[in-house]
Write a structure and sequence with these properties.
It is a single chain. By secondary structure, the protein is of the alpha/beta class. It has two helices and eight strands. The chain has helices at residues 16-26, 71-80; strands at 8-13, 30-34, 38-43, 46-52, 62-67, 99-100, 106-111, 117-122. The protein has a four-stranded mixed sheet, with helices on one face. The protein has a four-stranded mixed sheet with strand order 5-8-7-6. A hairpin with a 2-residue loop joins β3 (38-43) and β4. It starts with 7 loop residues before the first strand and ends with a strand.
Length: 126
């Protein structure tokens, strides 16, 4: 029933000003609205609502991710902006923090100012 409708991604922040700066200036996501209830962005045609909340606990897994065409270049650019990539001892990651999945996808993770885990994925060419 909903398969033909666009998805709206939602996560939370307790620090809206820091989130606004991080998502718009560091990640380059377009800010559409700074409303009383949420920061609203667009990314690749998808709406992203970052809900303004008084408190929450970040989830222990990926909350939001982007499919990118060149993960190495994207990681290098974000690293120059001060983004630190997560390291997981159970996953063999390269020096940039990129893990290669069994299907050939390349994935890395980082956190936003509220501790939400975000990811980048470069899917293998078909």
């Amino acid at each position: 029933m909903l398969g033909n409708y666009p998805v709206i991604a939602m996560i939370a922040t307790t620090q809206p000003e820091r989130a606004k700066t991080f998502y718009s200036e560091v990640l380059g996501v377009k800010l559409v609205e700074d409303g009383w209830f949420a920061l609203v962005f667009t990314a690749g045609g998808t709406r992203l609502h970052i809900q303004k909340v008084k408190q929450f606990s970040p989830l222990p897994f990926t909350a939001l991710g982007w499919a990118v065409t060149d993960i190495g270049a994207t990681v290098a650019k974000l690293a120059r902006e001060g983004v630190e990539f997560e390291r997981y001892k159970e996953m063999p990651q390269d020096d940039a923090g990129i893990w290669t999945a069994p299907d050939g996808a390349k994935v890395c993770w980082f956190k936003d100012p509220d501790g939400n885990t975000l990811s980048l994925t470069q899917f293998p060419s078909k």
